[in-house]
Amino acid sequence: MVSNKTVLFDSIPNHEPVDSLKIVTQQFDLDRQLAPGEAILKVEMLSLDPYMRSRMRDPSIETYVPPFTLGEPIDNGGVVIVLKSNNAHFKVDRKYYAGFTLPFSEYALVTEASNAFYTDITDAELPNETLIGACGLPGKTAYYSYKQLVRGKAGEKIFISAASGGIGQMLCQLCKMDGLKVLAAVGSDEKVDYCEKTLGVDRAFNYKTSDTRKELAAFGCDIFYDNVGGKMLEDVLDQINVYGRVICCGQIATYNSGAEAYGIKNTFQIVAKRLSFQGFITFELIPQKPFHESKYNTIEEEFMATIPSMIKEGKLDVKNHVYNGIEATSQAFLDLLRGDKHGKTVIQL
Amino acid sequence: MVSNKTVLFDSIPNHEPVDSLKIVTQQFDLDRQLAPGEAILKVEMLSLDPYMRSRMRDPSIETYVPPFTLGEPIDNGGVVIVLKSNNAHFKVDRKYYAGFTLPFSEYALVTEASNAFYTDITDAELPNETLIGACGLPGKTAYYSYKQLVRGKAGEKIFISAASGGIGQMLCQLCKMDGLKVLAAVGSDEKVDYCEKTLGVDRAFNYKTSDTRKELAAFGCDIFYDNVGGKMLEDVLDQINVYGRVICCGQIATYNSGAEAYGIKNTFQIVAKRLSFQGFITFELIPQKPFHESKYNTIEEEFMATIPSMIKEGKLDVKNHVYNGIEATSQAFLDLLRGDKHGKTVIQL
């Protein structure tokens, strides 16, 4: 038996999930007899992503992701080492990336039902946080949606909110490679510097101290890639160009607000400016054939064949914020929703 | 000289345009010498359309239609007879449909700049109100947007707001011809009857006395054709199916509300349900090639070759509300914005 710290979903939050997660120490039997298909994993790193906030809900509300279960561990993506296996998919001592379903705990027992979510990354030659971030869900979200939905053309002006986060940082760089003009909104002056000096965007501003409408009026906007929603979306509707396109990735500004969400009053601009909106979720884009000319069969194949090597060669920058210890989960998630830290949020165990 | 009653734009409204229009009696010289390109028109009928509300604004606000000018006549579409002409486009004693730019007056002097807006309809064999309504702007709006943007398939469920209005009545019938299931929202029980019994929709309800959310939950909704905006749009976002499409034609609920417009809080559903939105304005669709297979070069050609004859043959119903006398303009426009009357609003002079 070893002790196994685990993060349980403890209460449904109305606003910020300040008391929603509880750390408990359970016992885990490393010497247990494994049934066919079972494997024991040691968790090396866990990923926190904003969409997890919508899993912290009353389970009677249906939406695009399953709810967390009260009293059970929360789960998401991460990196694990296989300690013991009775499942051909999981090889002992090798390292796996879990896209989803990895419980927030130090050790985990999985069955064959998990196989599809775990990929062997032993030979990936990149740090765990990069495998989770730029090569994981946020990087893929940015890449797939950029290639399949944004379809940017050189010279087009794109406004990206939460531009230095896990999704935004990849997106900014993809846009610049294709010659788009990028305006980036972030929540601190340090992030402004990062976007302009490291990601190479044309202009970045701190939305807490600058006027979003003035920034948009001065820069112009053909495309809005929206990670934020709320008041910023309203500002964009008034400032975006005729025939503007809005790619709706997330609305982090609204996740904690419940019934007091900001109400957007100027939706008539959709008519007046002939705007289009497109919402998406990442896993539905994975199996799509690339919209552009490509030698790959799916957009995921193309991503895996290009992005990790570009990161190794230093052609793409990645910025992560690493917390230490599973005990940090609750605070890390609050920081993430508040935008208090910089880069993709991961927890090193 | 004859007297020429004219409707002037008299004040910019904040909410309902109760005092914005003023009738004045001017003098008009029927015997004037016409300069080259000039013609004198006698106005037979005028059209009132909801979009005119957005022309009653502070001219410093830019949007998709030009503002009315304070102290000048308002203008829109209508039907005229040519009394006198020094312009080859306008033939004396013939009848013309004006799509736009016809001043609200009993007599009008036009120049060559107006030629493009006037079509000879002397041989149309349809009443003026039908030429303005089902064969004019609202009918074309419904047809072009249905064919080019809705692209409905048999069995798909479409929700249409303001369904018995000028646009809605044509749209309901086009949808039923293609086998869509139609849910219609209207503002009176009489309109419910009309939609169900005459237009043949699958279900209609009075949104003032029925619960829009319950109606949508019971009927289902793949496509929302939005003429209304506001609270109804919010209701739809919560009830529309995953991958739902919203075609944004107008937002009559918001035109009078100014800064107190209803704020839509649940835009996150765009992400969660992977929705798409498309705004449009009619005149930009006119020159498009039909999206579907068609022997016509433009969607307008197709419309003109098919819809008027279907109306003559009784295959399409049209419902208009005819006011008598130019003095009725202000009240008619208020009624239109309030949804108090039934069918396309026109003024018989």
UniProtKB/TrEMBL annotation, chains A, B:
The keyword Transit peptide does not apply. It comes from the Eukaryota. GO terms for molecular function: oxidoreductase activity, acting on the CH-CH group of donors, NAD or NADP as acceptor. Keywords: Oxidoreductase. Residues 16-347 form the Enoyl reductase (ER) domain. PANTHER family: PROSTAGLANDIN REDUCTASE, PROSTAGLANDIN REDUCTASE 1. This is Enoyl reductase (ER) domain-containing protein. It comes from Wallemia ichthyophaga.
